[in-house]
Amino acid sequence: MRKRIQPIRHIIQVLFFVLLLFMVVGTICSFALGGVEFTEPLGALQVLVGVSIFNTPEKLYFLLASSAVLVVVTVIIGRAWCAWACPIMSVNELIEYVMKKSHYKPLGERGKKNREFGETRFATLAGVVAAAGISGSAAWCNFCPIGAICRTRSSGLIVAGAEVMILGMVFSANLYEKRFFCKYLCPVGGLLILLSKISAFFVPRADEKCRSCRACESICPEGIPLYSNNPDMSKCTKCLVCYTNCPYGAVRINIF
Amino acid sequence: MSEESDEDYSARPSRRRFIAGAAAFFGFTFILSAIAGLGSRPALRPPGAVSEDEFLSRCIRCGRCVDVCPTDGIKLSGLLESGLGTPVMSGYCAVYLELINPDPVKNFEFKMNGSRGTPCLKCISACPTGALISIPVEEIRIGTAVINRNTCLGWTQHTCFRCVAVCPFNAVTMSEAGGPVVIRDICTGCSQCVYVCPTLPKSIGVHPYPERGLGYGYRWRWGKGA
Questions:
Q1: Are B138 and B190 in contact (CB under 8 A)?
Q2: Is B4 inside a domain boundary?
Q3: pTM for this one?
Q4: What are the angstrom distances between the C-alpha of B82 and each of B88, B168, B221?
Q5: Which residue among B24, B84, B126 sits closest to A142, beta carbon to beta carbon?
Q6: Minimal Cα–Cα distance from B55 to chain A, Å?
Q7: Buried/exposed A76-113: b ≥16 CB within 10 Å, e otherwise
Q8: Range of the domain at B200
Q9: Residue B13 φ then ψ, to 5°
């Protein structure tokens, strides 16, 4: 099971990638699939701060209800959306895999260890929400790479010039540091971290077999020191690479 | 060197760094969206669109209207069009489900039957944020049709009149001078007349409805009117 969980996750990532890019009505920003209406919470938040008065109550209820789907999921199982469904994370992981196979070491990881940019995602989140409130437009949606990759189909597979540029920037930032966008810039990730601060289920924990070898910290895409006492788990994307790669098998996934 | 990570991990970025980051990203988003707004032109928005400023503040570029449109008449605009990623009309609006693939005979019979048909407006019900709001089909104002009398076969050769037959609202009628004219108060801008116009380039085109406001967008919010 330990070794098998990662292929399962990658299969689910591929399924979500195909689903979100080609199958659903709409894009990741808002879609209908079966009876489920989904709206991405950051888009909803921008609309709510960007417009002064809501024109029709039905649309407001619809917006709140459909954006509550991911909010509820995140509150329950944490930030699993990022590592299991987000298409940008999937592509970034693919790039990471290719870089590893071609023995390319990202520029930012060559010299001194532990470059700390800090939790810049909350800063981008605040900036995005402020920009939406002041400009009165869903400003981030113009440049959201997650939306851009999903809009390739709606723009008739001829991607607009700016969107190629944005996706190129996001993907080439991997050359500097693995998952640079996800780690430092993504405001959606920041929002989901805030929500998952109250999430208590499916949290990886180190049990008594742990010998503090710090393999989990070095392999974790978010750099969470699982070996330490009370690490901040709100950043955890539930990708379970710690579970797969712990040399002592000391990681348990606590359901509660 | 490796000793620092245990304690320092939980060290949060300073408040100054947070504010600097927020300000930088605010500027980044704001300037880039202003750049995207620079090239924007008045656009043909899908049916039920609210005023242009409000539209841009509501539209989250999700593309649901594009996917539900039965005529593939909506596309997402690119850079230097109107609001990057927002929907604009690229084809015709069927208005009624019966009028998908309009042709003069079918539409004329549809109008003669007197029944009003089933309104389509799938884009409006798909919109999650109220950028498109539900209105009666007669009140749709995507744009206004304008006829080029120099190339229109009705004006030059007194034939054709497909636009007159096809218009679901009888907004294109025969004038006393012999050619087709558009009644601007009734025209919804559905572009079915454009779809059936046989000349190349088209002799009838739909222009953005002026009262919706110009699509320059991204104005400062407190600069807007009430």
A1: no
A2: no
A3: 0.81
A4: 8, 28, 18
A5: B84
A6: 8
A7: ebbbbbbbbbbbbbbbbbbbbeeeeeeeeebeeeeeee
A8: 52-209
A9: -60, 145
- Residue B64 has its nearest CB partner, among A25, A44, A142, at A25
Rg of chain B over CA atoms, in angstroms? 23
ipTM: 0.79
Contact A247/B at CB under 8 A:
no
Query: A120: which chain B residues are within 8 Å (Cβ-Cβ)?
Result: 13, 21
Give A 81-140 residues with CB within 8 A of chain B.
Answer: 113-114, 116-120, 122-124, 126-128, 130-140
Question: B155-198, pLDDT tens digit by residue?
Answer: 998 888 999 999 998 999 998 888 899 998 888 888 999 999 99
CB A198 within 8 A of CB B120: no
Query: CA dist A230 to A56, A216, B66, B174, Å?
Result: 46, 14, 47, 80
Total of domains in chain B: 1
The CA distance from B59 to B130, in Å, is: 8
The H-assigned helical ranges of chain A are: 5-18, 41-50, 57-77, 80-84, 87-101, 120-135, 139-143, 145-154, 161-172, 180, 187-196, 215-219, 241-245
Min Cα separation B33/chain A (Å): 6
CB neighbour list of residue B126: distance below 8 Å, 6 or more residues apart: A25, A26, A32, B64, B65, B67, B68
Residue A58, min C-alpha distance to chain B (Å) = 9
B58 in any annotated domain: yes
How many Å lie between the alpha carbon of A128 and the closest alpha carbon of chain B? 6
Contact B9 A225 (CB under 8 A): yes
Does residue A154 carry a pLDDT above 50? yes
Q: CA B124 to CA B48: how far, in whole Å?
A: 7
Q: Which of B24, B29, B134 lies nearest to residue A143, judging by beta carbons?
A: B29
Chain A residues near residue B13 by CB distance under 8 angstroms? 117-120, 123
CATH of residue B182's domain is 3.30.70.20
Q: Buried b vs exposed e over B118-144: b needs ≥16 C-beta within 10 Å?
A: ebbbbbbbbbbbbbbbeeebeebbbbb
Residue of A nearest to B220 (CA): A135
Query: What is the band of A226 on the pLDDT scale with cuts at 50, 70, 90?
Result: confident
Q: B28 Cβ partners below 8 Å, 6+ apart? A: A127
Domains of chain A: 5-199 (no CATH), 200-256 (3.30.70.20)
Q: Return all residues near A140 (Cβ < 8 A) that are at least 6 apart.
A: A42, A46, A128, A131, A132, A187, B29
